[in-house]
Amino acid sequence: MTGFARIEKEHLEGKLSGEVRSLNSRYLELNIKLPKIDYYYEQKLREFVKKRVKRGKVDIVIKWEKSGDQTNMPRINEGMVRQYTTAAKALKKTFGLKGSLTVDNVFALKDVFVFEENNGIAEDLLIDCIEGLMTGLASEREKEGRLIKDDLLARIASILSGLSEIEQRWPLAIKAHEDKLKEKVMEATRGTSGIDEVRILQEIAMYMDRLDISEEIVRMKGHIGNFQDTIDSHESIGRKLDFIIQEMVRETNTIGSKSNDLYINERVIQIKVEIEKMREQVQNVE
After folding, report:
1. CA distance 235 to 232
2. Per residue in 174-204, pLDDT tens?
3. For 221-230, how does the pLDDT look when each residue is reduced to its tens digit (9 = 90+)?
4. DSSP letter at 267?
5. Using CA atoms in the order 116, 117, 123, 125, what is the torsion angle rounded to 10 degrees?
6. Which residue ranges form the domains of the chain, and what is each CATH number?
């Protein structure tokens, strides 16, 4: 699910700001960009986010700006200065060069001054920032979630409508198929002696029983009911909905394979289209 949130807070030591962006992804991809801090803090923040977000590509950026009196002062890189002076002496000795290093010369050399990054952010401030971002992100994702839920329920209603039409049509379709089959068998065996018509009719009845879709329709309704119950849950439901849709696909395919009635097959195709659109939407559900 997608979402965006931003937070900015002023503290005595400086300003702490953060942004979080969430894009659709089947799994959780978490990227956190922080000021240079202790690895322990970063791991703790990751665990905190993982408890709040289960799916999606989530990018978090946190920035820390120290107040004026907290600004870092440059520090002389003594080791680098020693290397420069040693190199200068070696040049004079080896190549007979004249001259000497001055303060002005040293100031112009690379890496003589370093600025240590010491963010000084307290752990509780980082946690508070992340918590604020997660709350804002959850609010945005909930808005999208309500839209996805409405869309899924509308498609479920369409599937139930098609399933109802199949259920009403099936007795007529199976009777027409049975009569046509009996007619073909009788025509093929007409004038043939030693034919057990009772046995033939029994075989036809058994064959027609294997084509019955009442069990598939019952299971399909059960999966739809399970889907409707699950979608109202406040827990992580994405993977469960995905599994239920797989079962709905299985039952729909079976119904289609057992039917040779054009009216029913048209409804089966319509149901498959709706299920496929549901499958795409569910990939975005946490």
Report:
1. 9
2. 777 767 776 776 666 666 665 656 666 666 5
3. 999 999 999 9
4. H
5. 130
6. 3-71+120-140 (3.30.230.10), 75-114 (no CATH), 141-282 (1.20.140)
